[in-house]
Predict the 3D structure of the following.
Amino acid sequence: MENIFQYYTLGSLLADVRGDRRFTHKDIAKTVGITPQSVSAVFNGKERLVINHITGWKRAFKLRRLQGAYFELLAILAAYPYESGSRSKLHERAFHLMGRLEEAAEMDHEAMNGLIYWADPIASMLRNMVELNGFPKTDADVGPWVVERLSYMGTLGTSAAVMIPRIEKTWNWLRKLKIIKKSQKRGFIKQTPNFISPGKITAAIKDLHSAILALLFVDTCQDFAEEMGTDRIIGGKVATFALGKQFHPIVAEILDDFLRELVGKLNYVANRDDLERLKTEDEAYHAEVLAFMKQMKTKGYTLPEGTDADVDSVVQVIFSARSLTK
């Protein structure tokens, strides 16, 4: 379990533990307080059940404090899409665990600046807010400045006394991992132009999309999302109308991959400062984005132009969600 932070999902972790002879189903069952059959069910795809006996599972795997916090976060994300009545408690617990992990900023494995960045909406919000005009020049001023611009964010509460410390905790983590750095000329800036996170986004991350989006918007968009009835409205309707049921999963996968690639390139199209930085950081992808821009213009699309001073994608999503649900 020394390398627990390399896993992005509970399922991938359990798949590796399954072949470890140190952890027999009988021993795990005895420590957790469940039957060996229940342990087998967890290892055979029902990992969402782990959250029901999380303390016992952490004890069975002999996890230390931070390992246990990360394991529990993976368990929450595995359970979240299937829960209904306890979602609010899981949501609050997830934010508490992410805060605890962010305090340990020396743990610089890519899971920490990839998964944790994805899971904590405050991280993505802060990283992108540094590009807003008027963003503070000193670390001490960040918390109060951000709170002034968030009239309500359900995951933090409405009290500045509660919100500011939570924002500062995430801000310190972003700074220590050098996701945000200080520039003498421009104040705080993003360390990399990557539109999502400096951590690698692997195929395993796709498994978390539903849970992550639910975590981010649960307090502001949950009712709206439930009324929609599906997280792939357009793709689902098209596939249902035009294709047989056996094709629906592959349509969903293609749409996910296409949308991720499209949003990634459009982010650079819309922010020429990011595009310029990309030239030195990833020359091959920079050329790919330029080719994409040329293709779009050939097809007659008018491409927007912006700079770091404009509000970037994640911030737009957050504030658009607030406008939508007022």
Residues 152-156, 194-231, 322-326 have pLDDT under 50 and may be disordered.
